[in-house]
Amino acid sequence: MSLSDRPAARVLAAALVVGASVVLGGCGYQPLYGRHADTPQVERALQTVRIVNIPDRVGQMMRSALEHRFAPARGNAAYLYDFSVTLSEGVTLLAVDQSSFGTRANLRLNAQYTLTRRQDGATLAKGDASMVSSYNVLSSEFATLAAEEKARERAVEELASILRTRAALYFHGPGAALAGTVRR
Length: 184
Known about the structure:
This protein has 184 residues and is α+β, with helices and mostly antiparallel strands. Helix content is 43%, strand content 27%. It has helices spanning 7-26, 40-47, 56-70, 141-172, 176-180, and strands at residues 49-51, 81-96, 102-117, 123-136. A hairpin with a 5-residue loop joins strand 2 (81-96) and strand 3.
């Protein structure tokens, strides 16, 4: 006998679904990821964050990706915060064939970040994040370099999304009062 054959079981299942949605809605449950999680106040606050220069080519890539994510259509809002990032990178060979040559590698990109208030230099949030991107090690050195560069680009893009989410969480949580005072 299936659930649809028993009316009492169907009513109980429906009551559980309704009860779960009421409980989750009442406790303040909100999605953590996605554009729908950002309020207009968080979006405005992120537009007032200046991404500090990051050294080296991978740093330029990260800064560009962060600027695009923090303020894709930056208006004339004054910078109130600085977001500084320190990057480190490492490559680990994973798969080794019978001739002792690596055939697969992981590129690991680590970021340590700090969000500071420009007015007084106070540290508002800090932490670290990392991303691993794999690529094939090929017999052609050029092809391997191209694969490694693509892996680096993927790692930068993903890590930039993580860092933007962390900054948005600050303005959505502990910094919500500050985010509400940001004006255009």
